Structures are given as C-alpha cells and as structure tokens.
Amino acid sequence: MGPGEEIDIVKVTGLESSDITRETADIAMLDGQTMTGKKIASRPVHIEAKYRYANDNAAKRMECIRFFNPKFTGDIEVTVMGTTRHASYELEGWSFNEIKGMDNNLSFVADLTLDDPYWYGMDDFGKNLAQKNGLTVFPWRVTAAKVTGLAEQYRGLALGGMTMSYKLLGTETIIENDGDVECGFKAVFTARNEVQNPKIENITTGTFMQVYTTLAQGDELVISTTDRKQSITLNGVNIYQRINRQSSPILLAVGGNLIRYSADVGQTNMDINLYYTPRYLGV
Q: Which of 94, 117, 140 is where one domain is finished?
C-alpha cells in the first residue's frame, strides 16, 4: 500500500509513538507523587486505505478477506521519508467501508496491534568476537621448499611455509547499538576443543552471563537475551538451569558497548558470534 501501489493509504496513525504508562506512589508528608517506573504500552496502528481503481472489485474483495486472517501473526514493513522499519502485528479487526455500488472503489479500515511496541531495523548485525584475520593474497604460490633467485615481484610468494591467518587474542570488542533503546542479542559459542564454563560480559553495563557446562569439539552453546525469547541451549537442548545464579540477562545499551568473553578453561578454543537487531521508538 502507498505511492505507486494499487492501494492508496488515506490515513495511518500509530507509527511514531506508543502510549506510556507511568507508575507512581504516594509518600507520606511529600507533596504530589513519586514516579516509580515507566512502561511503553502495546502499539495500536490504524490504517484507512482504498483501491485506486474500481475494476475487478469482486476479486479484490476476496483478496482482502483472505489477507486479513485473524489466525495469523503478520509482519508490517513501513517506509517513511526514506527510513524503513518492520514489526510483528496481530489483527484487532477490519472492515470494508460502505459503497454505493460495485462500480465504486473498494475501501477499508484495519486496526493492528503491536504487542511488542518497538520497530526493528531491516538489517541484522553480527560480529565474530574471536575472529581470524586472513593474510593470504593473490597471486600466490607454495612450494615444498623455499625458492631463491626469484624476480623481485615474486619474492614472498613462493615459501616453504607461511602464515595463512592469525586469530585475535584480545577478548574485548566494541558493539555499537544505534537504536533508540537497549536491545538483546544472540551469542553463539562454537567449541574447537574443550571449553569449560564460558562467560560473556557487557563491561559498559556491568552485567554478565555464565553457563556452568563443558563444551566438547563441535558443541554449540547459544545464549539469547532478546525480549520474549530468552534462552540458553546446548546443541539445541535447553540448559537454562545451568546458569550462574549471579548472572542477569545482558542487553546492549544505546551507543557503544564493551563486550568481553572468557572461560574457566579453554578460552582460546572457541568462536563467539554475536547477532542483534536495533530497536526504534517510531518510524
């Protein structure tokens, strides 16, 4: 729906902001109230639209009825002034507007609810915290023994052995969250040899998560701190009960976050990939 499409948007509300609920408390001998918390409510989105042309109204009517199916959760993608965001929605209700005859353009109203009130960026970001930096370039040759007497432009390309890449030994990296609010992430630990009790920390916020488990070669531990999807799995099996009880779900604050990973044993025996999607207050 929108400019250049068969369906024209007549009116839309709810893209910019959601209602806010303020929690307050009365304190004896103090004027007014004291705020104890804020909560962003679910987001209602109201859409009024009409077909640009009146041809084939019967087929269009059936198309709308099939599309607005209350049994399914939908995904809405919105572009405003060059910025695109998306979110999941539930259908609250919809209806056709009254028309005088089938020669008039069909129009309808639809009300959606975003239970998760945030809009999400179109790109998912990922970073390997224990990545390797490649050193190989082309053209490239390898021989069994070092070759001498080569022309200047070939020196360094024909060696008896050379370093293909090197692994970063630093255990800290900066993760940028350019969203409007904090967001969760998914951290994937992949063991290349034995690893005991892996841990990930957000030094910026002072929070950490550690799992008391031993990873063998090829094991994959996944820690998710995303709202409504928090979990810890080892090779797909839930092991949330093995979490260090002093842990708390790590979120990425707005701006730069200093992330550190470690393990009691085998810290250099694992790869750690971190994935996240920034959240926004409006479009």
A: 117
Residues spanned by the domain of 99: 7-117
User: Is pLDDT at 211 greater than 70 in this prediction?
Assistant: yes
Q: Which amino acid is at 130?
A: A
Q: Which helix (H) or strand (E) holds 67?
A: helix 57-67
**pTM of the full structure:** 0.77
In a domain, 2, yes or no: no
Same domain, 187 and 231: yes
- Give 239: exposed, middle or buried? Use CB within 10 Å, 0-12, 13-18, 19+: middle
Q: What is the pLDDT of residues 247-268, one digit of tens each?
A: 998 999 999 999 999 999 998 8
State the pLDDT at residue 135: 52
Same domain assignment for residues 63 and 88: yes
What does the chain come to in residues?
A: 283
Q: Residue 19 CA to chain centroid, in angstroms?
A: 23
Q: What is the pLDDT of residue 166?
A: 46
Closest to 280 (Cα-Cα) out of 158, 179, 197, 163: 179
* 8 Å CB contact between 112 and 92: yes
161, 182: one domain:
no
- Identify the residue whose tokens are 């209806």: 95
